[in-house]
Amino acid sequence: MADGLKFESVLKRPILTEKSTQETEGGNLYSFEVDLRATKLNIKTAIEKFYKVKVTRVHTLIVRGKVRRVGRYQGQAANWKKAMVRLAPGNSIELVEAK
Predict the structure, then answer these.
(1) N or C: where does the chain have the smaller number of CB atoms within 10 Å of the terminal CB?
(2) pLDDT at residue 3, rounded to an integer
(3) 51 within a domain of the structure (yes/no)
(4) How many angstroms separate the CA atoms of 69 and 57, rounded?
(5) How many angstroms from the chain centroid is the CA of residue 35?
(6) What is the pTM of this model?
(7) 3-state SS string for 1-63
């Protein structure tokens, strides 16, 4: 890819929550945690190569890390990037949740 990211390193993990599962069933929309440096084009290319599907739209957002306290000490969780990917009609991705 153009900015030095390999398509294997763009996708970190699928996000399997109750809300993301409902979006998958309702609108063919899948959520992934991706590298902070990844662009929408990088994400689209990586998903099309890895899952062999056709991507029609990619939305991204940066999730800010929460401030955590333990006693008088305070820290912050790392920021991460979330990508929501819409697939073309007829395409689907088989995501398996760990039990």
Answers:
(1) C
(2) 67
(3) yes
(4) 38
(5) 9
(6) 0.84
(7) CCCCCCHHHHEEEECCCHHHHHHHHHHCEEEEEECCCCCHHHHHHHHHHHHCCCEEEEEEEEE
pLDDT > 90 fraction of the chain, expressed in percent and rounded? 74
For 10-53, what is each residue's pLDDT tens digit?
Answer: 999 999 999 998 988 888 899 999 999 999 999 999 999 999 99
How many structural domains is the chain composed of? 1
Residue 29 lies in a domain: yes
Amino acid at 35: D
The CATH number covering residue 35 comes to: 3.30.70.330
Residue 77 maps to a domain? yes
CA dist., res. 47 & res. 88, Å (int): 12
At residue 94, what is the residue type? Answer: E
Domain ranges, residue 51? 15-87
CB neighbours of residue 42 within 10 Å: 23
